[in-house]
Each structure stands twice: as structure tokens, then as C-alpha cells.
Automatic annotation (TrEMBL):
Domain UDP-glucose/GDP-mannose dehydrogenase C-terminal residue range list: 324-425
Protein name: UDP-glucose 6-dehydrogenase
One GO MF term attached to the UniProt entry: UDP-glucose 6-dehydrogenase activity
EC nos: 1.1.1.22
Pfam family, one: UDPG_MGDP_dh_N
Residues that, per the record, bind NAD(+): 30, 35, 85, 125, 155, 272, 338
Active site: 269
Family as reported in the entry's similarity comment: Belongs to the UDP-glucose/GDP-mannose dehydrogenase family.
Biological process terms in GO annotation: polysaccharide biosynthetic process; UDP-glucuronate biosynthetic process
Role according to the record: Catalyzes the conversion of UDP-glucose into UDP-glucuronate, one of the precursors of teichuronic acid.
Listed pathway(s): Nucleotide-sugar biosynthesis; UDP-alpha-D-glucuronate biosynthesis; UDP-alpha-D-glucuronate from UDP-alpha-D-glucose: step 1/1
Swiss-Prot/TrEMBL catalytic activity: UDP-alpha-D-glucose + 2 NAD(+) + H2O = UDP-alpha-D-glucuronate + 2 NADH + 3 H(+)
Keywords attached to this entry: NAD, Oxidoreductase
Amino acid sequence: MIVSVIGVGYLGAVHAAAMAELGHDVIGLDVDSGRVAAMQAGRAPFHEPGFEEILRRGLAAGRLRFTTDYAEIAHADVHFLGLGTPQRADGFGADLRYLEAAVASLAAVLPARGGAPTLVVGKSTVPAGTARRLRAQLTAVPGADLMWNPEFLREGFAVQDTLAPDRLVYGVAAPDTPAADAQVALLDAVYAQLIAAEVPRLVMGFETAELVKVSANAFLATKISFINAIAELCEATGGDVTDVARAIGMDDRIGGKFLRAGIGFGGGCLPKDIRAFIASAEDLGVGEALGFLREVDAVNQRRRVRVVEIARELLGDLAGRRITVLGAAFKPDSDDVRDSPALEVVSRLMSAGAHVTVTDPEALDNAAKRVPGLVGEPHTEQALAGAELVLLLTEWREYRGLDPVRVRNLVAAPRMIDGRNVLDPGVWRDAGWEIRSLGRGA
Ligand code: UGA
């Protein structure tokens, strides 16, 4: 089967390489010629474990290539849409321009197939109603139709999540019709190996499929903000949020995952997706239904401010103080700094006049582009030298495993704020550190 993937950002690039891994002939398309050239040369434009390996394998096998030219993908049987839907500059809603432009460009070249069946499959996270509107852009193209197949991959686990997902969700214009059945069969053929491995596959209407994706992300964000709200209570009472999370998580109905309290969620998905979900509910006249998501967002923002308050509690005035921040990425095993809680804390510390040194194994280049004047130091020990306060803000394995005795000899004063609750406070205190965590006592 010949497959195209339009938009080879994070989602699209991984999807393209994964489809080649499944044995398809894949052409990835992007308007960014630099990105296309890098991937054609086998270079991953972002850090993602295992991605470069499958990218190179696909290229070497001749099953994967990249282009900027829509004419080169016109002959594909299936076109996946992997374009970004960022937060709109003028508000909370999702910016769908890239998707709309891609479908328009595709519609212009598809008549070259002479009416042969062609399936366009949306993967981006979109407000309910988008798939139906995009499908309307294709009505004039004989043989073409659209499905919605949201993607649930996590950064850091993207390859594994694409090739062995928890479930496949297929959205169709009209379930249980012959047209839908034919489309489902075609997409099943694309994912034949996953279906054979008994990955559950759910077929539903467009709007439901769109809602599944945003609901999943909103639920995850809510879980994180719930435990971070409890962290505020723990700080006010002397309780320990990590024990609360462990204990409530042992109830199967609650589940222990995504209950890690700390400086909160960031990245290119959860923050913008809950805001787009709120905007979409308001557009639909049911804004009250998602009013609680504003609170989820507010709790999340407050944690970033709280870390800086704790820094002030430890140091007093921050002006001129030497602070080292461990971690810039929005989460470990990623070089993504979009809406990174760590970087927002860095910016706030810098605005307060602190001399901040940031270290991160992968994300320093991206961080420097985001935060003007950022001082980055790739080597952890050099970054720690002379610090009056250390903040652990992204829980890379190498920071979780730091030896408090060794590090104490590098810093000017042994003070630590564990923004991710990954260090054992007792061990650090025994090694002579003053350590503060989020949601663990006053
Ligand atoms: C998220 C979802 O988890 C994926 O299922 C989804 O496909 C993806 O968005 C998307 O829509 O594309 P991702 O953004 O890669 O994936 O990151 P997560 O693992 O969800 O983490 C998001 C943020 O929450 C990170 O900043 C992380 O540090 C934070 N987090 C996570 C916590 O603060 N506590 C937790 O317990 C878990």
C-alpha cells in the first residue's frame, strides 16, 4: 500500500516512519524544506528514543522518503494528516489553518488518480466538527473520502505508542453504512499488524472520535491538577502529597498513574488542548460543562508560581543570587520545551534578577531559542558549581540519581527544591541539604 503523511512534525514524522516499519511505501510531506531535507538524510529533527532508528531503517529499505511537493503524493492510496493545531494567537481556540490548507492542496492534486478510491485520514487533535468540515472540502474529488483516527502517542514513548497503541479509534462520517465499512476495511489493511496483534479497534462517528481524543487529554490534565490541588492542601496542613497519591492510587477505580504532583503539566498538547476544549464548548453553547477545566489550568499555573515563592522563602530577595536549574524540557526523554513548566520558572527567576544557569541533556538549544538571555551549561556538574540554590524541574534519570554527598561539594550552599518529587528528602537531609518539595509539608 502507498501511504502519505502530510505534516511531518512530531506526530507526522513518527507516524511516517512507523508506517514504513509496518511495510508500507511511505512519502512524508511538509512545507518546511529544511525538515524534509534533514529527515531525507536520516537525521531526526527532535529527540525521541528509537525514532531515528526506524527513520533510517525505512530510508535504507527504500520504503520511506520525504518531499515538499503535493504532486509527488497524489498517487497514494491513503493520506494521513499529521498537521499541528496550535493555540490561536487571538485566543484559546485551536488554529486549524494548517489542516485546512493541507486538505485544499491535496484536493487539488487528487483528481490525478482518476476517481480511484482514496482515503484521507486525520490524526491531529481537533475540536468536534472539524472532520465533517474538512470532508466537505473533498466532496468535489471523485473517489476521495475522509476518516478521523486520533493519535494518543506520548513524547518519549512515541514509537512504541504508535506501533503498539492501547486502542485504535476510527471516526467515520456515518457509522454502519457500506461506505464506512469499506473505509474501515481499508484502514484495517494499513494497520493489519496491529489488528492481528489484537489492538482493540473502536469505530464511531466523527464527532465522537474527535471528543475521545480531547476528553482523554482533558482527563489526564485533570488528574494532574487534582493531585497538585491536594499538594496545596498538604502544604497548608503539613501533609505529604506523595503518600496521598500512593494511597488513593491503590484504589483500582482511581489508579496510580498521572498522580505525580509537582510543577505541573506542559508540552505541546495538554495545556493547549484543554484551552481549545473550553473554547469549543463555549462555541457550542455548553461552556459551563467544561468550566472546571479553567480551574485545572489555574491550578497548573499556580504551581509554577509556587516554586518561585519557595525559592524566595529559602533565599529572600532573588536579585543577584546564583541558582541552578536541572531540566528545561517539559518532561524527560524529550527536547521539547513548548509550554515547559521548567522554562517558565526559569523566566520568573531571571525576571526577579537571579543569575540562573540551566542544564538539560537534550533541550538546551530549544530552551535558548525560547528564553532570551538564558545561560545554558550542558554538563551537570559544571552547572551546579557555585549554586546557592538548585531546582530540579525536569526529572531526567541522571538528576533523579544524583548523589547528594558528591553534589554538596560542588554547590556554594546545599539548598534544593525538588519540583518533581523524585528525590528522597530524608536521604538529602542526612547529606546536609535543606530540601523543599512541592506538596510535602509546610
Ligand atoms: C500527552 C498525552 O499523554 C498523550 O496520550 C497524547 O497523545 C499527547 O499528549 C498528545 O495529545 O499528543 P505528552 O504531551 O507527550 O502526551 O506528555 P505527557 O506524558 O502526557 O505529560 C504531559 C505533562 O504532564 C508533562 O509536563 C509531565 O511532566 C506532566 N505530568 C505527567 C505530571 O506533572 N504529573 C504526572 O503524573 C504525569
